[in-house]
């Protein structure tokens, strides 16, 4: 199984277009200290030729350009991307669908809750119904979006997208609006969970034994954004479990049998983004890799 991390940042990317926090500023000034990163997305293939795109980032055009395996390979119009899968309805995971509108056939997969939110917005009708097939997938039901690649979606603690929040919103509920994906090919298993509000016993049981885990690394500490002076929301309020601190993912997953451990969906205020920083070293010492755009895994 071939895995390419197309985008490793959270919403807004790095540097965020309007942000002058220390990390964004350093990304503009010295990319050897902080690598610029695009918004969250991966591509997975059983054979290196047919690819499943998991989440369609607003940066998808650049991401596909930066990865030659995703380029058109034959004829005047072609794409190695055979299918697209959504793990939630956040803007940083669905806005790229508007770029994938140029008459290229593929199938869009998501749960009913996620796909209903896309279908309700008519701007996504630019994906013509006679070209892009939309398939609703039930939780815990295995399906094959690309021949040789099996996917099972499962609920993880999360919340509805920001643009759907209201007074009834519940943070940490396990519903079909925030899901993880268990992806299998050739006897290998990858768990992709770019958004998660907390680590539960059920989640630990679900991912035990996987060959690789790509997990929500939005914030290092719950109050990263507050410390940086650019926001008032905590990681918990945003529906993202912190890496460290009480209930943090590093400690919660420490005893779970996992192959490669990789943090993805990393917010621009997270200090682990700084190469060689004490925060980066501490995370790496716990056996975790901090993802960057273009990082590949061969499982």
Please describe what this structure looks like.
InterPro entries: Metallo-B-lactamas (IPR001279), PQQ_synth_PqqB (IPR011842), RibonucZ/Hydroxyglut_hydro (IPR036866). Belongs to the PqqB family. This protein is of the alpha/beta class and 299 residues long. The protein has one domain: Ribonuclease Z/Hydroxyacylglutathione hydrolase-like (Metallo-beta-lactamase, Chain A, 4-Layer Sandwich). It contains nine helices and 14 strands. The protein has helices spanning 22-29, 60-66, 91-94, 112-119, 201-207, 224-228, 235-238, 249-252, 278-285, and strands at residues 2-7, 41-45, 51-54, 81-85, 106-110, 132-136, 143-146, 149-158, 173-185, 188-193, 212-216, 260-264, 288-290, 296-298. The radius of gyration is 18 Å and the shape is globular.
Sum this structure up briefly.
By secondary structure, this protein is an alpha/beta fold.
Name some characteristics of this structure:
299 residues, Metallo-beta-lactamase, Chain A, globular, 9 helices, alpha/beta
């Amino acid at each position: 199984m071939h895995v390419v991390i197309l985008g490793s940042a959270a919403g807004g990317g790095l540097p965020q277009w309007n942000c002058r926090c220390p990390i964004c500023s350093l990304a503009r000034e010295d990319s050897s200290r902080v690598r610029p990163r695009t918004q969250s997305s991966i591509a997975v293939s059983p054979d290196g030729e047919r690819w499943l795109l998991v989440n369609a980032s607003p940066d998808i055009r650049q991401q596909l350009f930066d990865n030659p395996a995703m380029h058109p390979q034959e004829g005047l119009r072609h794409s190695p991307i055979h299918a697209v899968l959504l793990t939630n309805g956040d803007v940083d995971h669905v806005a790229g669908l508007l770029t994938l509108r140029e008459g290229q056939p593929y199938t869009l997969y998501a749960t009913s809750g996620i796909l209903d939110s896309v279908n309700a917005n008519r701007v996504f009708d630019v994906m013509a119904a006679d070209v892009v097939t939309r398939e609703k997938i039930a939780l815990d039901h295995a399906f094959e979006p690309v021949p040789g690649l099996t996917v099972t979606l499962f609920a993880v603690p999360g919340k509805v997208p920001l643009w759907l929040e209201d007074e009834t919103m519940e943070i940490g509920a396990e519903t079909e609006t925030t899901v993880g994906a268990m992806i299998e090919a050739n006897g290998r298993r990858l768990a992709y969970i770019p958004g998660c509000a907390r680590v539960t016993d059920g989640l630990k049981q679900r991912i035990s034994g996987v060959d690789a885990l790509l997990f929500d690394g939005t914030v290092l500490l719950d109050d990263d954004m507050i410390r940086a002076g650019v926001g008032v929301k905590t990681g918990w309020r945003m529906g993202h479990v912190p890496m460290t601190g009480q209930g943090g993912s590093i400690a919660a997953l420490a005893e779970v049998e996992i192959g490669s451990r990789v943090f993805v969906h990393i917010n621009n205020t997270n200090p682990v983004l700084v190469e060689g920083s004490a925060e980066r070293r501490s995370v790496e010492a716990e056996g975790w890799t901090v993802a960057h755009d273009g990082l590949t895994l061969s499982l």
